[in-house]
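Attaching the record inline, Q. Sequence:
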Amino acid sequence: MLFVIRNIDKPDTTALRAANRPAHLAYLDEIAPKLKLAGPFLSDDGQDMIGSLWIVEAPDRAAALRLATGDPYAKAGLFESQTATPWRQARGPTIG
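Structure, as predicted:
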């Protein structure tokens, strides 16, 4: 099943995000078989990353959340919130 993971950064955490970015990118490589799509949310001016959206394949919500909480960004305390919502693709190029 596909899940949308929505990670929202705490305010004023640009430096924390930058410090943990190499470990975060390595983690995304590690979970690549389960990660179908990923990218950052941006500030209104497009200059700062303020969160991220992932689409992951997992057997259930608990497994999807384990992927999310395993992210070095999450372990560093970057996120104000993380959610996992079941999702079904209806249009666009096939994901997964």
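The chain has a mean pLDDT of 96. The CA atoms of residues 58 and 66 lie 10 Å apart.

More tomorrow.
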